[in-house]
Write a structure and sequence with these properties.
The complex is a heterotrimer of chains A (206), B (160) and C (781). With 206 residues, chain A is α+β, with helices and mostly antiparallel strands. Chain A has six helices and seven strands; from the N terminus they run βααββββββαααα. Chain A has helices spanning 13-20, 23-29, 116-153, 164-176, 182-191, 193-203; strands spanning 2-9, 33-40, 43-52, 55-69, 73-82, 85-97, 103-114. The longest helix of chain A is centred in the middle third of the chain and has 38 residues, at 116-153. Chain A is globular and about 50 Å long. The two termini of chain A are 27 Å apart. Chain B has five helices and five strands, in the order ββαβββαααα. Chain B has helices at 28-35, 91-99, 108-121, 127-133, 145-159, and strands at 7-13, 16-22, 54-57, 60-63, 76-78. In chain B, a hairpin with a 2-residue loop joins β3 and β4. In chain B, α2 packs antiparallel against α5 (145-159). Chain C is an alpha+beta fold. Chain C has four domains: 15-22 and 474-623, Aldehyde Oxidoreductase, domain 4, CATH 3.30.365; 31-139 and 198-291, Aldehyde Oxidoreductase, domain 3; 160-197 and 293-401, Aldehyde Oxidoreductase, domain 4; 423-472 and 628-781, Aldehyde oxidase/xanthine dehydrogenase, molybdopterin binding domain (Aldehyde Oxidoreductase, domain 4, 2-Layer Sandwich), CATH 3.30.365.10. Chain C contains 20 helices and 32 strands. In chain C, the strands form eight sheets. Chain C has a seven-stranded mixed sheet with strand order 3-6-1-14-11-12-13, with helices on both faces. In chain C, strands 4-8-18-17-16-9-32 form a seven-stranded mixed sheet. In chain C, a hairpin with a 4-residue loop joins β11 (204-210) and β12 (215-220). The longest helix of chain C is centred in the last third of the chain and has 28 residues, at 542-569. The chains are: A alpha+beta (206), B alpha+beta (160), C alpha+beta (781). Chains in contact: A-C, B-C. Chains B and C meet through α1, α2, α3, α4 and α5 of B and α1, α4 and α18 of C.
Chain lengths: 206, 160, 781
């Protein structure tokens, strides 16, 4: 499955790059992440709890960052495996400064999904992934804005990342356009958390 | 590794009260079949589509594969075993036999338990209504035609 | 002898048990001390197995054992080949690769079993499955049949040079010469995709090795208990009489339960012996989509040569057949396809070339139809296209090509799935087609109703499709009939039942011979302890093969009854009749003796018997047909399609079937209805979608759409009986018939509905989505 798109962050490119490569940031940004650590040069291992309606489990993931050209671009290769199945992907991320406080990120990659998730979750993944990514990047954008503000004011700005459920509900609402029932919507949306996992893991961690 | 503590379940099945200690995650279908030995209720898919596991919960059809046994604590469940016996078939069972409304019989208990409340609510159904009523019960053997005939015949028997 | 019981709509003997939930299915078996199995299965379709760590799983409380291929040691062996290569064909390529109990070196399809966990409950076993750490190195999967045969493709079996599993070319006459003198040659590529049997009951095995008596009892959802018993004995180093296999009530077979020596079937009995505990494994629905066999994937490049008046001069078909990761079933399905490519037509020149290809998908073994539907789809599509090009009516072009009734037995000279020359034993085809045409009101619909409805802007189409079905193939089946001391009749046969009503139809055959009541005839099937000679329930052969064996055994018992009764009643045998459980003088019915009394007298406790006397009123007989019995039928349908949603509404559905003597019309109709529902699924609702890397994308009933009661039309069944000349009952099989012509029928009717769009349907299955796509392709051209 191809995943590609772009997103504009409200922050300078160096900050975006820094945040995106900061595992501490991503752990708090990414709902369900239980651990994320550097295990080798540019190689990370992590665990993430995923709930997809009746399907749930812990994904063990590994991420490799390569072809790094900071703060411009890098290639991310990810492998995630767990009870719901597996997700493998490779993607290229590029950051382009646009004005003083805006950065355009473009991403393009391929994801392979297998196991229970592919067999039973197929319909959901395809439809929801785009929205998922957009929402997820929105969360990251909020974190970046907070950091930029903190830097400017030289003090910490309280930033609360959304909980797993809130996040899922937000995506679901976006996808469904508010038409589906809340329960079904959460069920559908949470399905795409795994896709989000793949994408965010691409974004890289330090 | 979570330890599953047991729950003291009390449920009435086919008029008999049962008290058993069960794990909270035990499905109602498994409880009926293996804890109580009522193997007439069958499991076809465990994701709520095929309807083979249909039982009556307080008189209304429910998928026992999508319920935990603990959810029926204090409730009444009816299964196919409560409908009739080999020597004394319920009129609906009689009708199915006469009309050849079953072949392998695996989906049949689920269909019977769907038909029982259906005929109570709609004692003189049209073919269209019957087909919609059983549209949540998948059958791979019969093509449904004789099942529909059986329900029509059953409706006639129940009215007299 | 006019038939009293055969041909009657008799209620089934087995129903009261099934209706009251008192029938034993495999998952109903409970044995004290029983443990439960769950499998660790591969998520990848193609991967190298680098390592397995079961230590955490073994430590989980409630887990009794975990086994991998390594733990099996020398007991690890692939399954046996079920069908050998055709001994009589020349230049056959055949590479036999069979499924394994647990993956040893590499995973070859998604869902392949890697390890088995044995625990106190299925719940704990499934928990422990997650504890097992499997290291797999994913490999590129072989999915596409054509790409799979290209040089440089990844190999499913590394010891072979390519993914070619088998190759066979069959010829009759000279197609090239026929093509040279043809007025019209039509070539098309036709693609058919996989479907699942999706019986309502998933598979299961309960194995009980009793160490004290050194005996193994296995309950198995199999259509072939006897070969399973024999094979298990060999694999486990036991003698056959130490093994008992019971196929109790089975919740639908449809073919995949005829596949033998599934990994679980090989493994669970072994585990039971290893642990000396009863072991139960029941498949869940998701496993069923991966681990139970499927069928139908083929790509055809077909060509037909005709004269200007629509006579088929020759047919050529080169096709690829998807066998999945292994090929235990050999060439059976492609041979069936080849034998049905000529349909019911008199075609003298024929070439068919099949290449069987390994892919990284679930194994392919017969599913209702077993390759026949694909052959029929090809010929019927080609005839429809030819008819359009030649301006000949669809029914007329078929009439011109049907094998005439005086040409039977018709020899096609190519070989069939039993490796015998394909002979169509008997038939009278045109009356069946004509009857279908009349029943559906073809002429009147095309002339009056259809134009009127079309003028209203409605999309209505009509289709009418004939087909043959090879049935009743060998090798043989057997039965033992015994009149018991209480006058009831006990019949044991190896031929299992999965809902076809054998407990009743077989009883009718016996009751007819012995003048008994059907409900007094007790049939036992599927238990190797009761009868241990036979092959299995497949290829629509129940009534023909097992039924004739039962008929023969009953006749033998009848002779014994008459002989003994004649002596006792001091009457010549010709003057006696059997009725109502008695033997009596036809002219003086008060002079009689009951079967019960005779049975007792036939088994004396004292005194001497004549040399050569067999005790009791019992006989065993076998039946092995020389060649199969070819059934024939025609389906017709009127449907309406919503041109925006592509949802269909079947207004009329007619089947006319000629399967020779009908034992029980009620049961026959049931078989046809069920077959048609599967056919409708194959035509418009069911398709297994595989992703690029071999992932099955619709592994649940939410996404794999089995027709429900609201998709199914009411089916009108018409009947013609042409006696099958080569078996005493005069019967032909019908179990698969309902499913065979339906895809071809749908293609024809849908094209007819969209007559002005120039639609040509060269694929199966369709779906509302796909039809929409096809129509928009047409539009943009």
């Amino acid at each position: 499955m191809k995943i590609e798109g772009e997103y504009t962050f409200d922050g300078p490119r160096e900050d975006v790059w820094e945040m995106v490569r900061d595992p501490e940031v991503l752990v708090t940004c990414l709902p369900g992440t239980q651990s994320l650590k550097l295990v080798g040069k540019n190689e990370y291992e992590g665990e993430m709890a995923v709930r997809i309606g009746p399907i749930g489990g812990v994904f063990s993931g590994r991420l490799l960052v390569s072809d790094e050209v900071p703060p411009e671009s890098c290639t991310l290769t990810a492998e995630g495996k767990g009870k719901p199945g597996f997700v493998n992907g490779t993607g290229k991320v590029q950051l382009v400064q646009q004005g003083e406080n805006k950065t355009l990120m473009t991403y393009a990659g391929e994801v392979q999904i297998g196991g229970r998730l592919a067999g039973v979750g197929q319909r959901m993944i395809d439809t929801v992934s785009k929205s998922m990514i957009r929402q997820g990047l929105g969360v990251l954008d909020d974190a970046i804005k907070a950091r930029v503000m903190a830097k400017a004011d030289s003090k910490a700005v309280p930033y609360t990342p959304p909980s797993e459920t809130e996040f899922a509900a937000a995506v679901a609402k976006d996808v469904a356009g508010g038409l589906l029932s809340a329960r079904l919507v959460v069920w559908i949306a949470v399905a795409a958390i795994v896709v989000f996992l793949a994408v965010l893991v691409w974004l890289g961690v330090r | 590794m979570a330890k599953h503590s047991l729950f003291d379940l009390a449920v009435t099945v086919n008029g008999t009260r049962y008290e058993r200690a069960v794990e909270p995650r035990t499905l109602l279908s498994d409880f009926l079949r293996h804890d109580l030995g009522l193997t007439g209720t069958h499991v076809g898919c465990e994701h709520g589509v095929c309807g083979a596991c249909t039982v009556l919960l307080d008189g209304r059809p429910a998928r026992s594969c999508l319920l935990f046994a603990v959810q029926v604590h204090g409730h009444e469940v009816a299964t196919v075993e409560g409908l009739g016996t080999i020597e004394n078939l319920h009129p609906i069972q009689e009708a199915f036999r006469e009309a050849h409304g079953l072949q392998c019989g695996f989906c049949t208990p689920g269909i019977l338990m769907t038909v029982v409340p259906f005929l109570e609510q709609n004692p003189d159904p049209s073919e269209r209504e019957i087909r919609e009523a059983i549209s949540g019960n998948l059958c791979r053997c019969t093509g449904y035609q004789h099942v529909v005939d059986a329900v029509k015949l059953a409706a006639g028997k129940m009215r007299t | 002898m006019t038939k009293q019981i055969i041909g009657k709509r008799i209620r089934r003997n087995e129903d009261p048990r099934l209706l009251t939930g008192q029938a034993l299915f495999v998952d109903d078996v409970e044995i004290p001390g029983m443990l439960h199995a769950a499998f660790v299965r591969s998520d990848y379709a193609h991967a190298r197995l680098l390592g397995i760590d079961v230590s955490a799983a073994r430590k989980r409380p409630g887990v009794v054992a975990v086994f991998t291929a390594e733990d099996m040691g020398n007991d690890w062996q692939p399954g046996p080949p079920l069908v050998s290569p055709p001994p009589t064909a020349k230049d056959v390529v055949f590479h036999s690769r069979r499924q394994v109990p647990l993956v040893k070196d590499k995973v070859r399809h998604a869902g392949e079993a890697i390890a088995v966990v044995i625990a106190e409950s299925r719940y704990i076993a499934e928990d422990a499955v997650e504890d097992v750490l499997v290291q797999l190195e994913p490999l590129e999967a072989v999915i596409d049949l054509e790409k799979g045969l290209q040089a440089g493709s990844p190999l499913v079996h590394d010891d072979l040079e390519s993914n070619l599993a088998a190759h066979l070319r069959q010829k009759k006459g000279d197609y090239e010469a026929a093509r040279d003198r043809a007025d019209l040659v039509i070539k098309r590529r036709i693609v058919i995709e996989r479907g699942a049997a999706a019986a309502m009951e998933n598979r299961g095995v309960v194995a009980h090795w009793d160490e004290k008596s050194k005996s193994l009892t296995v309950w198995d959802t199999t259509q072939a208990p006897i070969p399973i018993r024999n094979g298990l004995a060999t694999r486990l180093g036991l003698s056959e009489n130490q093994v008992r296999v019971i196929a109790p009530f089975i919740g639908g077979g449809f073919g995949p339960k005829m596949m033998m020596f599934y990994p679980e079937e090989m493994l669970i009995p072994w585990v039971s012996m290893k642990l000396s505990r009863p072991i139960k494994w029941i498949e869940d629905r998701r496993e069923n989509f991966y681990a139970t066999t499927q069928e139908r994937g083929q790509i055809h490049d077909a060509e037909i040569a005709l004269s200007g008046d629509g006579r088929v001069l020759g047919l050529m078909d080169v096709f690829l057949h998807d066998t999945g990761a292994y090929d235990p079933y050999g060439l059976t399905i492609p041979l069936n396809t080849q034998c049905h490519l000529m349909g019911p037509y008199d075609i003298r020149n024929f070439t068919s070339d099949v290449s069987v290809v390994f892919t990284n998908k679930t194994l392919v073994t017969p599913v209702r139809g077993a390759g026949r539907a694909q052959g029929i789809f090809i010929i019927e599509r080609l005839l429809d296209i030819a008819a359009r090009e030649l301006g000949i009516d669809l029914v007329e072009i078929r009439k011109r090509n049907l094998i005439p009734p005086d040409a039977f037995p018709y020899e096609h000279t190519i070989i069939d799935q039993a490796f015998a020359p394909l002979v169509l034993d008997s038939g009278n085809y045109w009356p069946v087609m004509e009857k279908a045409r009349e029943m559906v009101g073809y002429a009147q619909f095309v002339k009056d109703e259809q134009p009127r409805l079309r003028a209203e802007g409605r999309c209505v189409g009509i289709g009418i499709t004939p087909f043959i079905e090879s049935t009743g193939v060998g090798p043989y089946e057997g039965a033992r009939v015994t009149i018991q001391a209480d006058g009831k009749i006990f019949v044991a046969t190896g031929y299992g039942t999965q809902g076809q009503g054998h407990f009743t139809t077989f009883a009718q055959i016996v009751a007819e011979q012995l003048g008994a009541t059907v409900s007094d005839v007790h049939i036992v099937t599927g238990d190797t302890a009761e009868f241990h000679w036979g092959t299995g329930t497949f290829a629509s052969r129940g009534v023909v093969v097992a039924g004739n064996a039962i008929h023969a055994a009953s006749s033998m018992v009848r002779q014994k009854v008459l002989r003994l009764a004649g002596k006792i009643l001091e009457t010549p045998e010709e003057e006696l009749e059997l009725a109502e459980g008695l033997v009596r003088l036809a002219d003086m019915p008060q002079k009689s003796i009951s079967l019960a009394e005779l049975a007792v007298l036939a088994n004396p406790l004292r005194g001497a018997v004549q040399p050569g006397t067999e005790p009791g009123l019992e006989a065993t007989a076998y039946f092995g047909p020389q060649f199969g019995a070819t059934a024939f039928g025609t389906h017709a349908m009127i449907l309406e399609i919503d041109p925006e949603t592509m949802m269909i509404d079947i207004k009329r559905y007619i089947t006319v079937e000629d399967c020779g003597t009908v034992i029980n019309p009620l049961i026959l109709e049931g078989q046809i209805h069920g077959g048609v529902s599967m056919g409708i699924g194959n035509a418009y609702y069911e398709k297994l979608h595989f992703g690029e890397n071999g992932q099955l994308l619709n592994a649940s009933f939410a996404d794999y759409l089995v027709p429900s009661s609201t998709e199914m039309p009411r089916i009108e069944v018409g009947h013609v009986e042409t006696n099958a000349p080569f078996n005493e009952l005069g019967a032909k099989g019908v179990g698969e018939a309902g499913a065979i012509p339906v895809p071809a029928l749908f293609a024809q009717a849908i094209e007819n509905a969209f007559y002005d769009r120039g639609l040509e349907i060269l694929e199966m299955p369709l779906s509302p989505n796909r039809l929409f796509e096809l129509l928009n392709e047409e539009k943009s051209q």
